[in-house]
Every structure is written in structure tokens, then in C-alpha cells.
Specification:
The protein has 416 residues and is of the alpha/beta class. The strands form three sheets. A seven-stranded mixed β-sheet has the order 2-8-7-6-5-3-4, sandwiched between helices. α13 packs across α15. The longest helix has 32 residues. The protein starts with 16 loop residues before the first helix and ends with a helix.
């Protein structure tokens, strides 16, 4: 095939198993009826009737926006009130000590892009967990970096600190900067949550790795599912471990409105930098604003203005928290149904704590998913297993789903 693409672009193509499976499920539901199809692919909250959930308080504020509010250009960095609100909503009562700055981004993906692009060199390896959102691979490779993985969970079912330390120390010995993308809260695709002690252990390992060196570590906690990871105050306590770190450790929190405000398609988020050094904080804003201007320019005004309106009114924040709590509990109930039935059938799954997804580890995931589709059941095949979106499957449809999965596994001869 004749190509005119530049060297760094040749051979690239977008193939997303998640959207491919979802498109099939949606098309079949349109044909047969939603009640005849189980769509366990969608990374969005669907209610018990299969409708997309958009929080009521968010809908109300959107309807009130004036043309100027939703059509005006936003500042490159983002509206100041919006950035303050992102910081407050992210950390709550667990704001870490240090200089904290923020820049708007198109969702959490924008944060990942800038962190990789601005804090690593071409050819560097980026450290990520073995269980991770597939878009991490694309962000890393498109920026001409390489992927290095470590085991997220050890044989005892806890954060694999030993492998994290091994991979971290090796990269620090080879690179000036080591960027770590760590989705340790309601992990996509497993639902695993690191404890405060595990976050502290990871930070201690980073501190030890760069102590008395001229090396830097940039830790990027991806907290996309934060608001569905546990009780509001409790699930945020780990943020405190990012305070008072040496100046050669920069933490960049990847915060998004996609889930916590159910604004998936509005593509709005913020990168929140935490550092003990004022100069690093200024540089953080300067270089990331520059990259924003050079890529997407500025971000969407409407979701920023809606968030500002909500966060300036204590009554609206209370309503926001109530709605989030309701859907968090609904998702947990769905997950509990599946896990109980899976346990009874001997189906293994990666330790799930909270979040949108459960992962069933296995070889031959594609064959099992193909077999399930014959029964109008759609899940996402991964390299090492199958992802089940508990956020999108009603409690009624969840009942018996583990049995159907087991039958499909048995029929194609897949063992865990």
C-alpha cells in the first residue's frame, strides 16, 4: 500500500474492542428490543431500565446556561472558579500539603497526554499496571514512548509493591524522568482499590528511588472513578500521602467530570499538580498551558460553567453527593450479585472493591465473548480476561449472568 504518512505515523490505526462490542450490542438492541440484549460493555452508568444516567442536578444547571456561558471561549488554563472547584471536588477534606495548581483538559485522557508528552523523553518507558485501560497504550505509543508494566495485584490479592519497586528502580537507573500512570482507585478494568497504606508504600518506594539523585518521578494517579469508589470522605484519604514530597517528585492527579458529573461526552477534566516547590508549580502551569494551546487550544465552556454553578451552592453540592451515593450503591449491588453467583460457580475474578468494572481472568477471552454474543450477551475481551461493566447491567439482568458466562467458558473449553 502506498503511504504518504510521516515515519512516526505509519502503521497506526484505531481499533477499540470496547466500542466495537458496544456498537454490536446497541444495533442488536435496536432490532430485538433492549430487554433481549445484555450490554455489559458500556463504561457509563445505565439505570435499571437501561437508560443513560445524567445526574439531575447537572441537567438542571445545563438548562440554565446562557448562550454566552456555553458558547464563549474559555481561558486556555480554564476558568479560575472551575479549577478551584476541581481541586475542592477532587480532594475534599484530604487536600495534600504543597503548591497545588490546575489546568483544564478534555477529560482525564488530556491529563495522560500532557503528563507523558511534557515529562518524559522520546523513547522513554512509561510505567503502568498490567491491568489498565487500553487507551494508556495509545497515549504512550502515539507520543513515541514505550510501555513498561508491573503487576497490579500479587498472589495474596494486594497491591504488588515488590514488582512495583523492581520496575521503578530499574527505570530510575536508566532515565532522567520516570512517569507512572497509576489507576489505583476503582481500577479500570478490575475494580481494585489501593488502600491508604498501599498508596503510602508506593510513595515511599518512589521517595527512596530518587533520594540523593538528580532523577525525577512524575506520579499520575488516575482517579476517573473516584466518586464511585467508596464513602465520600473515606475514599479520598489517600490524597494526603502526596503532601510534603521532595521537589523531584511531582504528583499530577488526572481528574475528570466524565463520571462524577456524568458528563462523558462533554470531555472535561483537569490536571492537578501537587509539588513542594513553587518553581515546579509555575512550570507545571506554563508548559501544560502551552501544550494545550498547541493541541486542543481551549476546553469546552459549558461543563465548566455548569460545575461552577453547582459548586457555588451548598444545597446543590448536597444534592450532587446524594445522587452519587445512590448510583454508587446501585453499582455495588449489581457487583455483589455477580460475585456471589460467580463464587458459587467457582468463577475467579480479579479482587473487586468498587467502580464500574469487574474482570474475569482467562486465556481465550475472545472465544468466550463470541460464544456469549450468540446468546445476545456482550462483554469486552481483553488480552488476559473479560471485562464486565457492572455500571451498565441492571440487577435483573445481572441475575444468572455468571451462569451464562460459565456455560460459555465450558462450551469453548476455556479454563481459568
Amino acid at each position: 500500500m502506498y503511504s504518504i504518512a510521516a515515519k512516526q505515523a505509519k502503521g497506526k490505526f484505531a481499533q477499540d474492542n470496547i466500542f466495537a462490542a458496544n456498537n454490536k450490542a446497541v444495533a442488536l438492541a435496536d432490532k430485538l428490543g433492549n430487554d433481549k440484549v445484555i450490554n455489559a460493555t458500556v463504561g457509563s452508568i445505565l439505570d435499571e431500565d437501561g437508560n443513560l444516567v445524567v445526574l439531575d442536578v447537572v441537567q438542571e444547571e445545563y438548562k440554565k446556561l446562557t448562550p454566552r456561558q456555553y458558547s464563549s471561549y474559555a481561558p486556555i488554563q480554564g476558568y479560575a472558579e472551575y479549577l478551584d472547584d476541581c481541586i475542592d471536588q477532587c480532594f475534599g477534606e484530604s487536600r495534600p500539603a504543597g503548591y497545588i495548581r490546575a489546568c483544564s483538559t478534555p477529560g482525564g485522557t488530556g491529563v495522560l497526554h500532557h503528563a507523558v508528552h511534557n515529562y518524559s523523553e522520546i523513547g522513554d518507558e512509561i510505567l503502568i499496571t498490567d491491568w489498565h485501560w487500553g487507551a494508556y497504550d495509545s497515549v504512550i505509543k502515539d507520543n513515541n514512548r514505550k510501555i513498561r508494566t508491573f503487576s497490579l495485584i500479587n498472589k495474596e490479592g494486594h497491591f504488588d509493591l515488590d514488582d512495583f519497586r523492581i520496575q521503578l528502580n530499574d527505570l530510575v537507573s536508566k532515565q532522567k524522568n520516570t512517569v507512572i500512570l497509576l489507576n489505583g482507585i476503582a481500577n479500570n478494568p478490575t475494580g481494585y482499590c489501593m488502600t491508604v497504606a498501599e498508596w503510602q508504600a508506593a510513595v515511599d518506594a518512589i521517595r527512596a528511588a530518587v533520594e540523593n539523585t538528580d532523577k525525577n518521578v512524575i506520579l499520575v494517579p488516575d482517579v476517573a472513578y473516584l466518586d464511585y469508589s467508596g464513602e465520600k470522605k473515606e475514599c479520598r484519604k489517600f490524597f494526603k500521602v502526596f503532601g510534603n514530597l521532595p521537589k523531584n517528585i511531582l504528583v499530577i492527579v488526572a481528574y475528570t467530570l466524565s463520571k462524577g458529573f456524568t458528563l462523558y461526552g462533554q470531555r472535561m477534566g483537569a490536571m492537578i499538580g501537587i509539588t513542594s516547590d513553587e518553581g515546579v508549580a509555575k512550570e507545571f502551569v506554563d508548559i501544560n498551558q502551552y501544550s494545550s494551546r498547541a493541541t486542543w487550544s481551549n476546553c469546552n465552556s459549558a461543563p465548566q460553567q455548569a460545575m461552577i454553578a453547582i459548586c457555588r451552592d451548598p444545597a446543590k453540592i448536597e444534592k450532587l453527593d446524594e445522587e452519587r451515593k445512590f448510583y454508587f450503591e446501585m453499582i455495588q449491588q449489581r457487583a455483589n450479585i455477580f460475585m456471589k453467583e460467580a463464587d458459587e460457580l467457582g468463577i475467579k475474578y480479579v479482587p473487586y472493591i468498587s467502580g464500574f468494572f469487574i474482570t474475569i481472568p482467562m486465556e481465550g477471552a475472545q472465544a468466550v465473548c463470541d460464544k456469549l454474543q450468540e446468546d445476545n450477551i456482550f462483554m469486552v475481551p481483553l488480552k488476559k480476561g473479560i471485562r464486565l461493566a457492572v455500571c451498565s447491567v441492571s440487577k435483573k439482568k445481572m441475575q444468572g449472568l455468571a451462569g451464562k458466562l460459565k456455560a460459555a467458558m465450558d462450551e469453548v473449553g476455556v479454563r481459568q
